[in-house]
Amino acid sequence: MMLHVPGVLSRSEVIEFRQQLDGADWVDGRETVGSQGAAFKQNRQVSENAQVTSELGDRILAALGRNALFVSAALPLRISPPLFNRYEAARQEQYGFHIDGAVRSHPSSPGWMRTDLSATLFLSSPEEYDGALTILDSTGAHEIRLPAGDLILYPSTHLHGVPQVGRGNRVCSFFWVQSMVRSDQQRTMLFELDQAIQTLRSQLGETKEMLMLVSHYHNLLREWAET
Predict the structure, then answer these.
(1) Binding site annotation covers 160?
(2) CA-based diameter of the chain, in Å?
(3) Where are the domains of the chain?
(4) DSSP class of 194
(5) Where do the Fe2OG dioxygenase domain residues begin and end (predicted)?
(6) Could you say which architecture CATH assigns to the domain 184-224?
């Protein structure tokens, strides 16, 4: 399932993030990928060990924890520390089609995590640049250019890339999620059931039928979750 999560960051938060990132130390983005990925990747990133990366990343994680839509869709067990990248038209930067590594580690988060979901949080408005995150799935190619502060969440099994930015700068945060539910199909079923429950509850209130649906949701989650 691919999902647009609006308003993870407010407009004022986006402005503040951009101001801090403009003054950050940007390094070659190939430092965070293996040799195969480096052949396709040409962009800039803020060092993952930089203080601004940690501070802004913590604020993103806090915002995600408050976002009911994200939590319902991702059912997060672990979230990698958010990183920040920039694609500049003047540098003709791009990232060819690739698939994210199945597992990741990070100096501030010991051990390994499985990457079930990939996430991009947009910090540039669509009007600021030309080019789009392109995600390939069984229905074709999807070009994603969301408002600043919005997030796209998608299975890490999908090929994706960023074509050369033709104008302006594209600034984003990106990270990965290990879900409590490994299967994308099962996560999608749980998400759709949860969203239906929320809608029906607002229309009908608490009923015996609602209690039955809630019970089924939690029993399915109990059956499928790995913690």
Answers:
(1) yes
(2) 61
(3) 3-179, 184-224
(4) H
(5) 78-179
(6) Irregular (4.10)
Global pTM reads: 0.93
98 is in an annotated binding site: yes
DSSP H or E segment with residue 137:
strand 133-137
Going from the C-alpha of 39 to that of each of 26, 46, 96, 148, the distances in angstroms are 19, 20, 9, 29
SS3 172: strand
- In whole angstroms, give the CA distance from residue 191 to residue 181: 11
For range 109-121, the mean pLDDT: 91
Written as six digits, the tokens of 166 are: 């033709």
| pLDDT tens per residue across span 23-81 | 999 998 766 655 555 566 889 999 998 999 999 999 999 999 999 999 999 999 999 99
CATH code of 3-179, in short, is 2.60.120.620
Instruction: Reduce the DSSP state of residue 166 to 3 states and report it.
Output: coil
First-to-last CA distance in the chain?
Answer: 21
Two tokens at 181? Answer: 């539910």
The reply to whether 106 sits in an annotated binding site is no
Q: CA separation (Å) from 75 to 4, 19, 56, 168?
A: 15, 31, 22, 35
142 assigned ligand-binding residue: no
